[in-house]
Amino acid sequence: MRRQIATACRTAGRDPTGVVLTAVTKTQPPEALTAAIAAGQRVFGENRVQEAQAHWAALRPAVPDLELRLIGPLQTNKAVDAVALFDVIETLDRPKLADALAAAADRLGRPVRVLIQINTGAEPQKAGVLPEDADALVRHARGKGLIVEGLMCIPPADEAPGPHFALLRRIARRNGLKALSMGMSGDYETAIRFGATHVRVGSALFGERNRPQTPSSD
User: Fold this and answer.
1) Residue 188 DSSP class
2) Average pLDDT score over residue span 181-185
3) Strands (DSSP E) found in 2-108
4) SS3 of 39, please?
5) How far apart are CA 167 and CA 148, in angstroms?
6) Res. 215 pLDDT band, cuts 50 70 90
7) 46-to-71, 105, 109, 185, 192 alpha-carbon distances in Å
8) 58 pLDDT exceeds 90?
9) 3 vs 117, which has greater pLDDT?
10) What is the pTM of this model?
11) What count of other Cβ atoms lies within 10 Å of the Cβ of residue 82?
12) How many degrees, rounded to 5, is the angle at CA 93 between CA 59 and CA 71?
């Protein structure tokens, strides 16, 4: 996968070291995680706090340079658990969650690195702040002491992703943000052309993921 990303970077005239591969490990079995770690992968994305705790409780202490990123929606009552486990939370999408993360940071005595999730397609069923409210949320999060590193988006499945990636880039630039988490297995090459710094890849690495038998509660 890193070779494909490097090829996409060269095609876009970019340095491959400027794009981080986030391996999406939701619902993957333990052997898939250990194989990825053995192959040199160090940045992983998880969708749910509870599942991530089960995945990484035993593995993380043995891999000191591991980075865990929360890429799924977060409820405020899971903020403390999320801050304790994850290095970066990519799905900050509302002031109330920013407040909860700031309180968790104070309680645990550790800084919180975040990305703001933007609902670029204004889809009612999808998490993320609307584009027109993004600047205000960035200011609010910064005012709470959160380390706002960049933005994240998931474009609508039935639309070309390019315009959504371009919108995310514009919002990031006017807020002085460098990190752009955009692009997944099916559109990471397009995302790289539009400036992605992180691409979130699951099925292209591990194959189609296993579906949990029961829905998660977090």
Assistant:
1) H
2) 94
3) 20-24, 43-46, 67-70, 88-92
4) coil
5) 18
6) very low
7) 6, 20, 23, 15, 21
8) no
9) 117
10) 0.91
11) 26
12) 25
